[in-house]
Amino acid sequence: MDEQANKIVSDLMGEYADSVLRMCYLYLKDYHLAEDVTQETFIRVMKHYDKFRKESSVKTWIMKIAINLCKNQMKTWWYKRQNFNDITEIAYDASYDGLVDRQELFHEINKLSTKYKEIILLFYYQEMPVSEIAEILKLKESAVKTRLFRAREQLKLNYLEDESYE
User: Fold this and answer.
1) Distance CA 26, CA 78 (A)
2) Which CATH number does the domain housing residue 62 bear?
3) CA 27 to chain centroid
4) pLDDT tens digits for the chain (166 residues)?
5) Which residues form the signal peptide (predicted)?
6) With the C-alpha atoms ordered 32, 66, 101, 158, is the resulting torsion angle positive or negative?
7) CATH code where residue 135 lies
8) Alpha-carbon distance 73 to 38, whole Å?
9) CA angle 64, 74, 65 (to 5 degrees)
């Protein structure tokens, strides 16, 4: 890899590493695993940057790599036998302060099935447009919108149910 390519990948890491780490953590619920997957993501970006066809944004391409690596990790025997109940603040950002406690909201998001959780993570946490989410997940835009709507409905329902017990 030449020096210019190294600089490009270094710049990409500077720009997207925190976002990738946050998203990996939200998927995997383990900070150290998220760090490993983030590192592996950028190793793959470095190895395959010359093959990037620029059919999507660089962020979309990087997030797709990270999501695929997270999904692969979640399929492993070791991962399936772990208990991830201790959730730390790494997943949160100060901009999410508001009506719902961040930790409670994160807990509710983690209760969602993977197909709804990944839509919420990409749309709200990564601030990606529906078209890019569709490209990453290999879905039609209408399917992304439907899943986003259903995920929001489930979050509202779960949050309201939790509030009724207080």
Assistant:
1) 18
2) 1.10.1740.10
3) 6
4) 567 767 877 888 899 999 999 889 888 888 889 999 999 999 998 888 888 888 788 888 899 999 999 989 888 877 666 655 544 444 444 444 444 456 677 778 878 888 898 898 888 888 889 998 998 888 999 999 999 999 999 888 876 565 544 4
5) none
6) negative
7) 1.10.10.10
8) 12
9) 15
The 3-state secondary structure of 134-158 reads HHHHCCCHHHHHHHHHHHHHHHHHH
Which domain, by its residues, includes 139?
Answer: 92-166
For the record, the structure tokens of 4 come out as 């210019």
Q: Is 2 left (phi over 0), alpha (psi -120 to 50) or beta?
A: beta
Residues in the chain: 166
Give me the DSSP letters along the chain: --HHHHHHHHHHHHHHHHHHHHHHHHHHS-HHHHHHHHHHHHHHHHHHGGG---SS-HHHHHHHHHHHHHHHHHTSHHHHT-------GGG--GGG-SSS-HHHHHHHHHHS-HHHHHHHIIIIIS---HHHHHHHHT--HHHHHHHHHHHHHHHHHHHHHHHHT-
Domain check: are 56 and 109 in the same one?
Answer: no
